[in-house]
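Ticket reopened. Same input as before:
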Amino acid sequence: MATLVIAEHDNATLGAVTLNTVAAAQQIGGDLHVLVAGSGCSAVAEAAAKIAGVGRVLVADHAAYAHQLPENLAPLVAELGRDYSHVLAAATSAGKNLLPRVAALLDVEQISEIVKVLAPDTFQRPIYAGNAIATVQSSAPIKVVSVRTTGFDAVAGEGGSASIEAVKGGSDAGLSRFVGEEIARSERPELTGAKIVVSGGRGMQSGDNFQLLYRVADKLGAAVGASRAAVDAGFVPNDMQVGQTGKIVAPQLYIAVGISGAIQHLAGMKDSRVIVAINKDEEAPIFQVADYGLVGDLFEIVPELERQL
Amino acid sequence: MKVLVAVKRVVDYNVKVRVKADHSGVDLANVKMSMNPFCEIAVEEAVRLKEKGIASEIVAVSVGPAQAQEQLRTALALGADRAILIETDEELGSLAVAKLLKAVVDKEQPQLVITGKQAIDSDNNQTGQMLAALTGYAQGTFASKVEVAGDKLKVVREIDGGLQTLELALPAIVTTDLRLNEPRYASLPNIMKAKKKPLETVKPADLGVSVASTLKTLKVEAPAERQAGIKVGSVAELVEKLKNEAKVI
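Engineering reply: fixed in the latest deploy. New output:
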């Protein structure tokens, strides 16, 4: 029994979520190999070889894998996956895009966003926006599983000494072409990995008012998130959305400002250790999950909070 | 070109679901059901393509119980031309649904298939990608913008760091993100007209697809409840609590 973990990376650096995925793989047990597929990705392979507990790093370096287009990458992963009992990837936009295509090529069902490993064939995963937790057992010959990274503590990124082996293959299916991307640059920590998250909702009233949150976040070293309402209203870009259909976060401290607390939003943050709600509506559902609630006008409270930190 | 849209009947997104006492699943008796919100966006996108003169016919398809006809009628009222219900009382997994949709794709030969990125009940986010694998088509998942240019499709996708633009060969599979469009409401005259539009019903066996599953749900539980918190009276009190009681700042 061996597990193949698909590394998340941008060809230059290894994505931190890979360490959480490896943690899930270790709970499954057995040998653990990591696949780094990309173009000019040798630095990533070296980083992957240092992850504690990894036995082998497979490197598929080919121009066709440069942007990890699933049409090119899924056949490779499916081919390699036949030799494994488990194929794992982080449940990020990249993992969610690739893994079901791999599973279908292998003709096996996939298990999405596990939060717990109970046995090598039994997992827990949230359904209905996190309002129910399902325990599922798979009898598939190859278990293709995506991992909700907030459910597993990252393993050490140093200390391992895996062998690095090149994997042959690589062809362009000719179905898709990368045109470009717009990546939002930020000095603040990455949302899903941040220890503190400050999020704004419809109550912020405008994108300019998010400056109030940015100032508090900078004092706390926090990332800034948003509810779907704030994103739909155009206040902030959609990669800041926390929720069932956005990012799932579980920081030490989550500060929800002007967020009512719809089911959709709670699904993305209710595993946070401490939740603070700042809202003028005393009846807002967010107060039912908040450890500390402060009822009042956020435009007075947030600047005051910034002064007192 | 012909566009196929897949729609799913799910519990309405506003419903707070309850887990059954015997832990066999979620209680859906007498709960309001609706079209999955992402599927509504898929239908809307297909209708917009038709209004632009790009799509010639829109076929809505659903896999589900007899009552899923309601959601197909909704799709017809929103502008789909005809509908196919693959009727089954079993709750099928994504791979089985993808195989059934593949059978429909083989028969209908659409140039574009639009599905939602995920159903809000199972939260799987798999079917579109699996259908793409089975058909061998390109996939444009989590799309927030779709443009047809000749025999190519330009798709802007929502990815973790921002947006990514791809060019796909047609035929292709697209899955919708929330930002793709704002779905319209069906007007009463259109709802009346939809009743006369064709709706064909088939069984999985008619399509020659086995829907056997290797996944078994052992148990469904309510998530751990969070303890009720306290309301603080001032910012000073809040900061004090975070520092000394919760020790998070």
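Residues 196-308 of chain A form a domain with the Rossmann fold fold (CATH 3.40.50.1220). Chain A touches chain B through 87 residues (CB under 8 Å). Please confirm and we'll close it.
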